[in-house]
Amino acid sequence: GAVVSQHPSWVICKSGTSVKIECRSLDFQATTMFWYRQFPKQSLMLMATSNEGSKATYEQGVEKDKFLINHASLTLSTLTVTSAHPEDSSFYICSAYILSSGRENEQFFGPGTRLTVL
Amino acid sequence: AQKITQTQPGMFVQEKEAVTLDCTYDTSDPSYGLFWYKQPSSGEMIFLIYQGSYDQQNATEGRYSLNFQKARKSANLVISASQLGDSAMYFCAGKDSNYQLIWGAGTKLIIKP
Hints:
Distance between the termini of chain A: 37 Å
Shape of chain A: globular
Distance between the termini of chain B: 41 Å
Structural class of chain B: mainly beta
Shape of chain B: globular
Oligomer: heterodimer
Helix content of chain A: under 10%
Largest sheet of chain A: 7 strands, mixed
Order of helices and strands of chain B: EEEEEEEEEEEE
Structural class of chain A: mainly beta
């Protein structure tokens, strides 16, 4: 159990286009999901906390108009990179935790989405 | 706010040897949690082990154990009998009160045959 999927696994797009990345909790409900980005050979950087039914909370320095997050249901959060540019190329990972006794200590990660902007 | 420090950018270890990956943390919260994750080249984050600040005993999960020394604020990961498949990036992370994870810089572990 506790599986998180991401789609797509990798995407190549032209500069100026928008890309949507989906994060789904397959066998549990996730009130909260987290979005991270990771540059090569670096650690994960938290971009935003996505809460079902409310606006996402963005970390300092993350442009909310560029990285649109929608958490419309308890099993789906989407990250849309708008007007993507080459500097947005990165590895994007989502995670979710289970709000139930005993498992809330663990975050479950999606497999990640590798975005390359030409 | 929490801070997680991993001072080893990379390590080479001979297969079948034990390896210790260092992690120190700095937090003012009396209640916190510490995690270790493995990230192979495929990119997925694999949960290895968790230690709660109030846990009396060091956490163990198969070949993984966590050497938790509260006074020294360290939570080192010990991998016993290393295998070639253990080659990966390893991240130490601390959980804050909002369930957000604060990440260390990571250690690249390479197991030599």
